[in-house]
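User: Please predict the structure of the protein below. I'd like the answer in C-alpha cell form so I can feed it into my own downstream comparison script.

Assistant: Understood. Taking the following sequence of 552 residues as input:
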Amino acid sequence: MKKITSIYILTGLLTIGTVTSCKKDFLERPPLDQLSEATFWKTPNDVYQAVMAVYNQLPGDGIIYEDGASDNAHAQYPWESSATDVSAGTLTSTTDAGWSFVDIRRANYFLANADKVTTIDAALLERYKAEVRFLRALFYSRMVNKFGDVPLITTVLTLGQENVKRTPKAEVIKFITDELEAVSKILPQAYAGGKPNEKGRITKGAALALKARVYLNDGQFQGAADAASQVMTLGYTLFKVDAEEAIDAKDDYSKWVTFANAADEKKFRLGLRSYEALFHKANEGNNEVILDRQQIDQKDANFLNTYLLPGTIGGWSSVTPTQELVNSYGSYKTGEAVTPTDPAQRAAWYIAKNPLFANEYKNRDPRFYASILFEDSPWNAVEDDYKFNWVQGASNMSLTGYNFRKMVDPAIYRLQVDNYANIILIRYAEVLLTYAEAKNEVSGPDNSIYEALDAVRTRSGMPVVDRVKYAGKDALREVIRNERRVELALEGQRYMDIRRWKIAPQVMKTINNIKNTQAQERVWNDRFYLMPIPQKEIDLSKGVLTPNPGYN
C-alpha cells in the first residue's frame, strides 16, 4: 500500500468541551472523555492535533444517503440513515435527520483556545484558524440546508448559556458567506506537502467553492456566479484519462452503443473512463478535486464498495438508482433527452426476456454506463466476464432493479480489502455547473455558460449544447438542471436541488422497479422542505427551541 502524504484525519483524538455540569441540554453535553485543560494547549503540536480533530467531523461516505433522500436513489435500510424515512415521507419529530452541534462545538472550542499556545508561528496559527472557520461554515451550511433557522453559536457556551434560540436562516447564511470570504483571503491555493502543509487541507478554492454552493442553495444567484467565477481562475481542471486500462478494454459495448467508427468508440470509452476513474483511489487528489475527506490507509476505510454493490458480489445494495434517475441520462448521439419506455411495457419485456427490453439502455450518455449497473451491463474491472443480473428479493439486493457502480473502486474490490479512497466533497465540475445555473438565472444564456456546460459534457464524451435550440433562459435552465442531476448523481447535491427548484412535490413520488412493482411508497408534504427539530431537543431546551412548520 502506498504511503499517504496528504492530510490525516484523526479519529477520536479530542472530544472536547467546557460544560461539566451533569445537567443535560440541547447544544452542549459533557463528553465522556476530556483532555485536561492543564496539560493541553501548550505546544504547536497540540494546535495541530486539535485542528485534526475538527477535520475529523467532515462528511464521509454518508453523503450518498443525501441522494437516497431524493428522487435519484432508494435507501432501503432505515437503520443506516434517515434517508429512508425522508424519502418515504414518514418523518416525525423523533426522526434523527442530522441535528447535531458536536462538529460546531469542536470548531468553537479550537477557536477559543488556540491563541493560548504562544510558541507557534503566528502566520501558521492564523491559517489553522482559517481552516477551522471554513469547517465551521461548512457544518453550519449543512444545518441550514436541512433545518432552516438554527442557533448560531460562535463561542464556547458556559453553564446557563446552553439553551439558545434559533437564528433566522438569512443571518446564518450571511455569517457563513462572510466567514468564507474572509478565510479565502488567508488560505493558500495549494499546499506543498509534509506536516503541517499536507495536500488535502482547506484551500482558497474550497472556501470560494463552498461560498458559491451556499449562495446557490439560497437563491442568491449573483453571489453564486461571482464566487464560482473566482474559482474558475484558480487553475482547476476536469480529470481526464488518455487511455483505457487493459481490464477495462475487455468491456464490450458494441451491444449498447452504435459506434460510427473507431474514433467514435474511443471518444465514448475515454469519456466513460474519465468520469468513473476520478473517484478511484489511484486518482485521488487529482486536479478536479477541490475538497475531499482524506482517509488513512489501514485505519479509516470508507464503505462505498459495500454500500453500493449488489449482494451477488458482496455488497448490501444500501443505496440504489431509481428508474427516474436512469431516465435522466440523455442520448450519446444527439445529447438530447430520451423517451423512456412505458413502465408496463418495460416490465412485460423484462419478464418475457424479450430482446426489446435492452433497447432502452442503448446509445446513452457515457456517464450512464459509468454510474449504473443495469441488466446485462459489462464490468470486467470488478470480475472477469462480469455482467450485472438483478436477483429480485434476495438478501442485500436492489429493490429497484439497478445498482450503482459510480464511486465503487473495482481495483480495491479485486484485492478483497477495505476501500481507503478519499471521499470527494467538492469538485470543479460542480463549480462549473453552479456558475452555469447562477449566471443563467441572473442574465440568461451567454457564451460563458455554454462553455462551462460543454466542458463538463465533453469530458464524458457527450456532444456540446445546441446553442440554437437552447438559446432561451427557460430552455437552457432545463438543460442545466438535468446536467447537474447526471453529473453529480450520488454526490449529495440532489437533496437541495429539488428543494431549491421547488420541484420536490412533483418528483418525490412512489418508485417502482423494472418489473413495475412498487419498490417504495413515497408521500410528499410541503413541511418536508425542512426537517423536523427533534422533539427531545425541544423538550431539553425548555421551550427555547421551536418546531419547524407542520411538525407541531
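That's the full C-alpha cell string. Confidence is low (pLDDT under 50) at residues 1-24.
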